[in-house]
């Protein structure tokens, strides 16, 4: 083998070694960039999920408020109807008592 051939082989080995180191460095950079991108995406998804959960809770609270108001109104209406019925029954009872007293004892 000639000196040129040996030198060419050494240079080729050096280039191969440099290429391997460069590729390892690039691989590490890609890995770090990918991990960073994953972490950023996780943060973004977490933020979006939190916003969605807050929005859903807000909608749920609004629905609950509407339902409570409806139930409260129904209860108030029923109480008013019961009070009206009680008042009518009391009036009817008083009238019945007055009629009975008048029929028994007359208009003295």
Report on the architecture of this protein.
The protein has 108 residues and is mostly helical. Helix content is 95%, strand content 0%. The protein has one helix and no strands. The chain is rod-shaped. The mean pLDDT is 92.
Largest sheet: none
Spatial gap, N to C terminus:
153 Å
Percent strand equals: under 5%
- The helix content, as a percent range, equals over 70%
**Large-scale geometry:** rod-shaped
Oligomeric state of the chains in view = single chain
Computed Rg: 46 Å
Tell me, rounded to a whole number, the average pLDDT: 92
Give the SSE map:
Layout: H1 3-105
Considering the chains and any ligands shown, give keywords for the structure.
mainly alpha, rod-shaped
How would you concisely characterize the structure shown here?
The chain has one helix at residues 3-105. It is mainly α and 108 residues long.
């Amino acid at each position: 083998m000639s000196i040129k051939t040996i030198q060419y082989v050494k240079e080729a080995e050096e280039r191969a070694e440099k290429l391997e180191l460069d590729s390892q460095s690039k691989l590490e950079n890609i890995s770090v960039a990918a991990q960073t991108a994953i972490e950023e995406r996780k943060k973004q998804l977490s933020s979006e999920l939190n916003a969605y959960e807050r929005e859903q809770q807000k909608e749920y609270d609004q629905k609950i408020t509407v339902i409570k108001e409806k139930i409260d109104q129904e209860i108030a209406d029923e109480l008013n109807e019961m009070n009206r019925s009680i008042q009518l029954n009391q009036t009817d009872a008083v009238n019945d008592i007055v009629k009975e007293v008048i029929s028994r004892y007359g208009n003295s």
